[in-house]
Write a structure and sequence with these properties.
This protein is mostly helical. The chain has an eight-stranded mixed β-sheet with strand order 4-3-5-1-6-7-2-8, sandwiched between helices. The chain has a three-stranded antiparallel β-sheet with strand order 9-10-11, with no helix packed on it. Strand 10 and strand 11 form a beta hairpin. The chain starts with a helix and ends in a 16-residue tail after the last helix.
């Protein structure tokens, strides 16, 4: 090596990428970025090393030296051609290059230390740090994944070995060989024909139609001493009435049994097309329809009405566990037989599912629908069958009952004669299934023709002026009193029922109270049931008579969807600055009739019930009674009233006298005092019910006496919601129907109240309906009213009592009573009454499903 070459090597810059040089006879291909300063230490950190090569010309005629790419660090000695200035620049460049290389090496070895000491090269520092952290994370994740894979492999091997050991057992091998030998037979099992399926569908549907209709009837009971010929007894029996329903298609050309048959078959086929499994669909259809038939029969026996679509909300609301408590002992045998029958049906269907070689009614291949023409056609057919059947059923129900709708016209052509308001008559004559579907699609109420914002606001102004006139003579506020609105379950004087008499008055105390304070009879829309509707009317001031017949239970079909739900209790909330001033108490489960949710919508601040929180304690029943006694419940209500010194509104609902009315009380003197000439079953129910009323009568007197000792104004509005449903003898006479919808009520104030011993005149109190209670309460207290209460006050004077058509046995016209309790036909109402009734419909529509134009007008606000 020449001296010049050695000199050049000695003073070449350390680990620097030289500029690109031409190669004789070759192409220059750089292996790395020539601008990058690289250290061997970084090679190690990255787990690999790349050879950085810069090709130099092999023969350079113009240059006498060859400089190596990697040379030792040192000072550069200038050549002869180098000027002092060039020498100084090159020296500075070499020193700077050396410092950069040293810094880079330090960063690679310890980037944390380099972070503090080398702030002048942030790009290189950040990049190196990120790469190192990513490397560490990658290694950690990789090791974790490998560990998981090893664990899974170990577990799989263990399971595989265990399964292999199990299958090698001789007994297991025998079982496997048995099934292997029978598998060809299983594949060749017989497929039942579609004709056989059709026979099953027709037979099961016909049985369910007859069974459901059979549940509507009960054996007649005749008066003693009256001779009834054998033919009449046969025709009036359950079997005779059921036979008549079937044979009327030949005797009277009414194909109602065929109509119900077609409806059930349509439901059956829809289920089959959706599930595509005949025997599974058969088990579900048979179980559901049998359950419906039994439930319908039980409800007919206890409440004298069929199962309604709104009853399904009772189940979905979480009340399923309470349904068994409503089954009387007389129906327990039928329930047990039905359970046994359904169980056997399900077992048979499961067996048939294995025997039948046809899995699907319609060939379908979801996984490979386009594999063949058969697969494509079958899959498309199944989809079309399911969609069309569901659409047909939905279309049938949607407008069923509306005049001019296709399903209504079809049913009428088969002999259907709708009686929407009278569920009992409609189900008996047309079939429970027809009645159920007629009520399935709920229409709240018809929109009044002149409903508009201007019309409604005009009504608000009209009754605002009326309220001002009334308030000129009123000197108190309702909210200055504690008010207890008490719904007494099924309370009504039994001696008012035709054919019922006792040698001793069962309710002497309440009868005496009624003579001393505001009291009378309340026209109820329910008989044997419907508690929630009567309670809804009392709290809202709205009448069920203004709603569509398809709205059977407002608490379940309407209230949950309300955007604005003004109730009387909210006045106490407003008077107390939004504090907890309205409290609800119910002697049963809180979710019955969805009260838990509805009371929140009504802005009750607290709701006490026998379950959940807050919970009522210290409750008990009497003897073997089903429900909480009024005595123990009154004690809990009294505690809540005494625990607070503020005036509050209490909504109280009892349960003691709820059905069933079996022999519940040990010492029932009314068995001996009953002078009624009634059938044995009806008399047993009456005696038990009357003893319960007697307990209520005594407990109510004690409760009012205790309230009388409290030194602040307290008023109790006590009312029964409906009569029990066992008065079959009296109900058979249409003249008694209005009386069987009238219950007792009174408004009582304690001695600390200004209204103590107040008794309104007969016109204002003898007859009423629960929608007028808030207006009557204000009148009893001589309290100022809101425009809404002013309207109800005027409405009560024009039509003292109003209810649904069923309250008078009508098929369509609402029930209106005058001040003497006489029935008034709508056409005979005064012009003023008709105008008020129209205003009522506008107000109720706006509050229920309208635009709530009244909300911001102060229509329901009491004056301060």
């Amino acid at each position: 090596m020449s001296a010049a070459s050695t000199t050049n090597h000695a003073f070449a810059s350390t680990r620097l990428h030289h500029s690109r040089q031409p190669i004789i006879g070759g192409v220059y291909r750089p292996l790395a970025n020539r601008s990058t300063i690289t250290s061997p230490t970084i090679f190690c950190r990255h787990g690999n090393a790349k050879l950085y090569v810069q090709k130099q010309p092999i023969h350079n005629e113009t240059s006498q030296s060859r400089t190596s790419l990697y040379v030792q660090s040192g000072f550069h000695i200038p050549s002869a051609e180098t000027t002092p200035e060039e020498f100084a620049i090159k020296t500075w460049a070499n020193e700077t290059s050396k410092r950069l290389m040293d810094t880079t090496t330090t960063i690679a070895d310890n980037y944390d230390a380099a972070f503090d000491s080398t702030p002048s090269i942030p790009d290189e520092r950040t990049a190196i740090k990120a790469v190192c952290m990513a490397k560490e994370t990658y290694c950690t994740v990789t090791e974790g994944c490998k560990a998981i894979v090893r664990t899974i492999k170990t577990a799989a091997a263990t399971v595989h070995n265990a399964w292999h050991t199990f299958t090698q057992l001789k007994a297991v091998q025998l079982i496997i060989k048995f099934f292997q030998s029978t598998y060809p037979l299983w594949k060749k099992r017989h497929r039942f024909s579609y004709s056989f399926y059709a026979i099953i569908i027709a037979a099961l549907s016909a049985f369910e139609v007859i069974f459901i209709q059979w549940g509507m009837y009960s054996e007649p009971e005749y008066e003693k001493g009256v001779e009834i010929d054998k033919t009449t007894r046969i025709l009036d029996s359950v079997a005779g009435q059921t036979t008549k329903f079937v044979t009327q298609m030949w005797l009277e050309q009414k194909n109602l049994v065929l109509l119900n048959f077609i409806i059930l078959i349509a439901i059956y086929l829809t289920l089959i097309f959706i599930l595509n499994r005949f025997w599974v669909s058969t088990a579900i259809f048979g179980a559901v329809m049998t359950t419906y038939a039994v439930a319908n029969h039980v409800k007919m026996q206890t409440r004298n009405e069929p199962v309604l679509p709104a009853d399904l909300n009772f189940i979905t609301g979480g009340n399923t566990s309470e349904l068994t408590s409503f089954i009387p002992k007389s129906s327990q045998g039928l329930v047990n037989s039905a359970v046994t029958g359904v169980t056997w049906l399900v077992i048979i269907c499961i067996i048939m599912q294995f025997i039948d070689g046809r899995n699907g009614i319609i060939h379908c291949a979801w996984r490979r629908p386009f594999a063949s023409v058969k697969n494509f056609t079958g899959t498309l057919t199944r989809i079309a069958a399911a969609v069309c059947s569901v659409a047909l059923c939905f279309s049938f129900v949607w407008g069923f009952g509306d005049d001019g709708y296709w399903s209504t016209q079809f049913a009428q052509s088969m002999g259907d004669s709708p009686q929407i308001w009278n569920g009992l008559a409609d189900s008996t004559s047309n079939g429970p299934v027809v009645n159920f579907l007629r009520l399935a699609h709920t229409k709240t109420m018809d929109k009044p023709e002149d409903y508009s914002q201007e019309t409604v606001q005009a009504i608000a102004k009209k009754y605002a002026k009326q309220a001002q006139q009334i308030n000129k003579t009123r000197n108190t506020n309702m909210t200055d009193n504690t008010v207890i609105m008490m719904l007494s379950e099924t309370f009504s004087d039994p001696t008012r029922v035709p054919g019922v008499s006792f040698s001793e008055d069962p309710i002497p105390n309440i009868r005496q109270i009624k003579t001393q304070t505001t009291s009378g009879l309340m026209l109820s829309p329910g008989y044997g049931g419907g508690t929630a509707n009567i309670e809804y009317q009392a709290l809202t001031g709205l009448s069920m008579a203004n709603y569509s017949p398809t709205l059977s239970i407002a608490y379940q079909q309407l209230v949950p969807s309300l955007k604005w739900a003004p109730t009387i209790n909210q006045a106490w909330n407003a008077a107390n600055g939004g504090k907890k001033a309205s409290v609800a108490l119910h002697a049963f489960n809180r979710n019955m009739y969805s009260r838990d949710l509805n009371y929140k919508k009504f802005q009750f601040s607290q709701f006490f019930a026998t379950d959940g929180k807050p919970q009522l304690t210290g409750l008990h029943a009497i003897d073997s009674a089903w429900y909480v006694s009024d005595e123990s419940f009154y004690s809990e209500v009294l505690k809540k009233v005494m625990d607070s010194n503020e005036n509050k509104f209490y909504q109280v609902v009892t349960m003691q006298n709820h059905m069933p009315y079996e022999d519940l009380y040990q010492n029932n003197e009314f068995k001996e005092m009953d002078a009624s000439d009634l059938p044995a079953d009806e008399k047993l129910n009456l005696d038990t019910y009357t003893k319960g009323l007697n307990y209520t009568d005594q407990s109510t007197l004690v409760f009012l006496s205790q309230l009388n000792e409290i030194n602040r104004p307290i008023t109790v509005l006590f009312y029964g919601d409906h009569l029990p449903g066992f008065y079959s003898t009296a109900y058979s006479d249409k003249k008694n129907i209005i009386g069987l919808h009238e219950t007792d009520y009174f408004i009582w104030s304690n001695q600390a109240s200004r209204s103590a011993n107040t008794k309104l005149d007969a016109v204002s109190s003898d007859y009423t309906s629960s929608n007028y209670f808030s207006a009557q309460l204000a009148e009893h207290l001589n309290a100022k009213v809101s425009p809404y209460l002013a309207f109800l006050t005027e409405m009560h004077q024009a039509i003292p009592a109003m209810s649904v058509p069923d309250s008078s046995g009508s098929s369509s016209a609402p029930t209106y009573l005058d001040a003497n309790g006489n029935l008034i036909k709508k056409k005979n109402l005064s012009k003023q009454a008709k105008q008020l009734l129209h205003d009522y419909q506008l107000i109720q529509y706006d509050m229920s499903i309208g635009k709530n134009y009244l909300k911001d007008t102060g229509f329901v606000d009491l004056p301060e």
